[in-house]
Amino acid sequence: MHWSNFAARRTALAAALIVGCADAAVAQDAPPPPAEPASEWTPLDSAKFGEELGSKWIPVPNGDSGAPRHGWLATADGFFTREVHLAANYTEARGPDSWGVLGRFHYPFTRRLWAGIEVPFYQNSGRSGNFGDVTLTTQVMLVEKRNLSINGGVGWRLPTGSIRQGNNVFAAQPQLNIWTDVGRGFSLRGRVAYEFANRNQPDNFVLNAAVGQTITPHSRAPFGDLTWYVSANWRQPIRGVGNSFVSITPGMRTHVGNNLFLLAGVEFPVTNVANSFSQRYIVQLVQGF
């Protein structure tokens, strides 16, 4: 693939994602109607923290403007989900293109405790394929109100993959994640984290922010909870040798039916393009249960 074609393709793909979602938004009279009042769910109470550590998880209703607590690509969740994911990506680079397939399992044990595991069971860098590094994340819910969720935790990268493909790294990432409904179906979310790594990998400061809008109600499958969003990521080496990296990911999410969701996005590097990749295409299925 010729480098001269990358810029044009990048622009066209980003425009297609954003314009397509914008057209859908214009077609709606208004954002989805405000969520119905919660029947069983109540906001978490810091005075009952110990009791809520053992309380059964209750799905949180949408925000007051109808923004749902749904995961997006290339961003963080400040809330808890109970889901299974299957995702695939294809990365175009100046060298050999690469692709991979991974699975995730998310499970809230209580209203305050959650764990998720990510298993990249196949990664191919052009000439060879192998298993990737598994990531186990544990989180504690700190704040949960109708329009605001904040959790903190640690993501543990385990050295289960091949060194040849840049894996076999142990890393710990303490993190703080946030989600908030800001009105008219819009939500903001993000993460602040610091990543400690071994095997001569640099420690990194990690920052993520994303904004998006849900423009249809959940019931309108296969275009239910139709959402457009844009996510930005920044990784800055703090200790060790490494390059600063910034990327932008426009994407969409839709409810296909029976709590099955389809997500798609394209990640574009903004900095260090010559040493990273041209663009990464991502498709993901999410099944809630």
Please list the strands of the largest sheet in the order they lie side by side.
1-2-3-5-6-7-8-9-10-11-12-13
Overall form = globular
Tell me the radius of gyration. Answer: 19 Å
What structural class do the secondary elements suggest? mainly beta
* Biggest sheet architecture: 12 strands, antiparallel, barrel
Low-confidence stretches: 24-29
Helical element count? 2
Strand content: over 45%
Instruction: Please provide the ordered H/E string of secondary-structure elements.
Output: HHEEEEEEEEEEEEE
Chain-averaged pLDDT: 89
User: Share of helix among residues?
Assistant: under 10%
The total of beta strands comes to: 13
User: In whole angstroms, how far apart are the ends?
Assistant: 41 Å
Description:
- The chain has 289 residues and is mainly beta.
- Helix content is 9%, strand content 49%.
- The protein has helices at 6-27, 49-53; strands at 83-92, 98-108, 113-124, 129-130, 135-145, 148-157, 171-183, 186-197, 203-214, 224-239, 245-257, 260-269, 279-288.
- It has a twelve-stranded antiparallel beta barrel with strand order 1-2-3-5-6-7-8-9-10-11-12-13.
- It is globular.
- The relative contact order is 0.18.
